[in-house]
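I am writing to request your help with a piece of structural work I have in hand. Here, with my thanks, is the record as I have it:
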Amino acid sequence: MPDALHRRIADDIRRRITAGEWRPGQALPSRADLAAAYHVHEQTMRLAYVLLRRTGILEGEERKRVVVAHPPAVRTLTDADAAWPYSCEVTDARPVPATEELAKRLGVAVGSLLRHETVECMDPGGRSAMLASAWWRGSRKAHVSYTAEIDTVPLGVDQAHALGLLVDTLAFRVVRTRLDWHGTPVETADLLLPMDRWRIRLHG
């Protein structure tokens, strides 16, 4: 079966970008203009743009101008507890009630009021590289060890907006729980890592 039309158009746009017709950071023509140039319906061009954003060729939000993406800096996560070496910005610090999952992770009752902080971590070029949301009860306490579990999750609206990706794009989620001397959880966090910008390497 031949490829769908929007896939063929996406392949041609990718070829033109590789050839240097549009360079990283440069905006593409409007969807309507490219639809006219390719003699297709604007909806077909929208699907091509969606595909190119999902594969990291273009970046930009739905219904806005898109630009050629800079090749992402692919980083390797080896220590989920290491301090972030570049700039960070706190984007949310509202207390929240413990969900069933957070209550289990922290060993508290469902509905307990938790302190919360979401931090956007930037790469050296100032682009978002990771979102880290942490929850704890009371004052922040020192920890001596941590556990980490890795899975993948679809990005929600706010998360996708912060990372410059589409809603429902899959990202690595590292669930990090910090422990005190007695092995009691003192803080838990979700680290969201865009899959096109990270690889995970575990040391035994």
